[in-house]
Description:
- This protein is about 40% helix and about 20% strand.
- A five-stranded mixed beta barrel has the order 1-2-3-5-4.
- Strand 4 and strand 5 form a beta hairpin.
- With about 160 residues, it is an alpha+beta fold.
- It is elongated and about 95 Å long.
- It starts with a helix and ends with a strand.
Amino acid sequence: xxxxxxxxxxxxxxxxxxxxxxxxxxxxxxxxxxxxxxxxxxxxxxxxxxxxxxxxxxxxxxxxxxxxxxxxxxxxxxxxxxxxxxxxxxxxxxxxxxxxxxxxxxxxxxxxxxxxxxxxxxxxxxxxxxxxxxxxxxxxxxxxxxxxxxxxxxxxxxxxxx
Length: 162
């Protein structure tokens, strides 16, 4: 076996390993770019003609597809840990608040910290929150009251003075 063939095989193997790393770790970064470069260089070095290069390229693409299906199966079945899945739980006792826990703010009174056109900031007892007016423009400094809570959106209206 000549040295050029050995280099081509090493490049192809390195390319598959790097592309495999890229499939597990999200993003298009150094392993993906290096893997593509290794695979392209390996195909060029391994082929003697254009027809042979096309055949090797098709084989490489088929192997990449098989590798993708296997990694997808391993990630979805839990046999391989995914780096993009949160491992820790976010509990309320630790200070995490989900969007449906904002009902306690209903009726809370405050002041518009910025102009609301219709979104902006409102100051409620020293806590500045993102708020949305009911569709009207509200000037900065206007007294507000939280009228509705829709998920994580706080809808406010001008507080009427009686």
